[in-house]
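A quick aside before the break. I want you to see a complete sequence-to-structure record at least once, exactly as it would be stored in a machine-readable document. Don't worry about memorizing anything.
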Amino acid sequence: MPIADLRALGDLVEGWRSAPELQRAIVALEHGLAACDEPFVGQPLEPGLVRGRLPAGIASAWVFVLRAGSRNPAHLHPNSTQYTTAIRGGGRAFLGEREVALRCFDAADPLGTIEVIPPGMPHAFAPGGENLVVVSFHTVAPGELVEIELDSARRRKYLD
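That is the input. The structure line, written in tokens, reads:
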């Protein structure tokens, strides 16, 4: 994706961070995470937030809440590039062979705070002492996003 488009994604994240629709989704996801034993929960952003706003090549936008102090299983998306940024919390990201400290999104440095994960690249996240909230963009529609866990080879779609 061209650098200008990463800046466009950054503009969206900056505008959405305080949006009531996103805040409501985060609260609902945190309640859902507290009621289960999964390492993370997520959902596509409401159509009203994304309709007509996504740059060319981006087909969906998501919010995920990852459990504090718990590393999610390494996985990959064979059919999508993922662009992800933390909007609350911190921790570590494992992106292929790289390990990086997650920095919360910085509107002054979108290129330094949006991670690009190509299709097929294994990745995992290890939140620090608080739940990690990320916004992710994908190059496929919500119902088409496939995840494959590396250890179990479990294949799933987030939406059925």
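Two observations worth writing down. The chain is about 25% helix and 35% strand. The first helix runs from residue 3 to 16. We'll return to this after the break.
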